[in-house]
Amino acid sequence: MGVMTHSGRIRVRPLTKANLSIQITLIGLTLLTIYSFSTFDARNINLFAALGEMLNNFRMLFFEPRLKNTDWAELWHALLVTIGLGFLTTIFGAIIAFFLALLAAQNLAPRWLAQVIRAGTAFVRAVPTVLWVLFFAVSAGLGSVAAVLGMTFHSAGYLIKAYSESFEEIEPGVLEALRASGASWWQTIFQAVLPASASALLSWTFVRFEINFSTAIAMGATAGAGGIGYNMFMASVYYLDLRELGALSYAILLFAMLLEWLATRMKANLGAKG
Amino acid sequence: MHLLQVDALTKRYGHETLALNEISFDVRPGEFVAIIGPSGAGKSTLLRCLNRLIDISSGQVHFDGVNVSSLRGTALRRQRTQIGMIFQHYNLVNRLSVIENVLHGRLGYKGTFEGILGLYNEQEKQEAVRIIESVGLGEQIYKRCDQLSGGQKQRVGIARALVQQPKMLLCDEPIASLDPNSSKIIMDTLREINQNLGITVLVNLHQVDVALRYADRVIGIKRGQLVFDGDPNLITDQQIHQIYGSESGDLMLNLRERYAAA
Q: Residue A195 domain-assigned?
């Protein structure tokens, strides 16, 4: 078999099964897109007017932010409630996760136990946070209690996986050395495992805090957990006030940036101090 | 009176693999014993059976009159404090300082909570500082271990073992990752510890020439069996051939001749 095709040209990319299936998928998606556009019912819509409206909405949202139904004091209070919800669930989740992760790490716990915990946490993670909140709402009622329980549950599931994988990256020799000198299991954990993985644990906890902060906003809007999410919900659904929604978004953005800056600094400090 | 008595020690992995096959030898207090043999012969397994990092399949190990083979839990921890161990890859917690790593050698003497919180008493700290200075790391005492050279790391490893106040040191390939100069410093340090402190030293070595130069006694292991046990001056070229297999044996002998000439 030569490199020439029937027409006498040279083929650069061989026609393998993988290439063929990618090409078929792309062609299929293109055809579907064309078809769906052709079936839009756009009779009552003037495309240019609609586009103008949309840009106008964006302008109100991003360039004309102001507060109306929420005052400044209330804004900061609401933001604090949301931060508190994110912080509390992260801390609870982190404490639970630390101890369970020790038992889920294959280099620290018996194999069967590690596997049981892993399977359990995989299930906890597979169910979205919102569903856990709704699940706890059955017993606790829709509100902040259900939100705290549900978010803690999912955070723990997430952090157990992250922490235990950090623990497993520790050099096996270090654990062996401490065992050889007569150290007990708990001593090995706190004298070798924790110092060696501290920076990784901190990174993962911050990542989870960011996730929990945004989840806390959503929970305020959907699960009655209060906080800035609730104010956004009101501004959006009841007052149809894009300008206020913009102001609230900026407040959240500001805090997210502050958080990022704080995380970077703490990690740098830990790296220097050891 | 022997410090260490190894009697028909056997270690089996699964049903097939026989890592150690009925190994017997005794070690007197204060001896410097080198264990030589090719990679995979079972040298590391042997050392780890002596402090029970690995469980023994059959046979007996007595250390200082105590039957090590059946120890469990706290009794095993107490036993391990009597035996220091030094590793090829140093096995330090890199993020911690020299003195923190050295103090880890005291954990076996501590209660669980004192150990978890790292509460060492003043006497232990003084002893740690003294030992760190004695291995020549007085300047590096608060340095993080990942900032040290290989030779310095190994000296931290030795200090960590010494702070245990052990009766015996097990050294698993202590110079296999070091350059010749650092290797000499480490081997000299081990010999000084042996001669000045009277601590028994068992050292696994790849380098036959180093073993012959430093040890009072050489034990040869091949495929899990003890094939030589005696005075390093009495080991013949033929026996070295036998331990290492002919081809690598030739290399060893060449090295030995060159040392003899130098």
A: yes
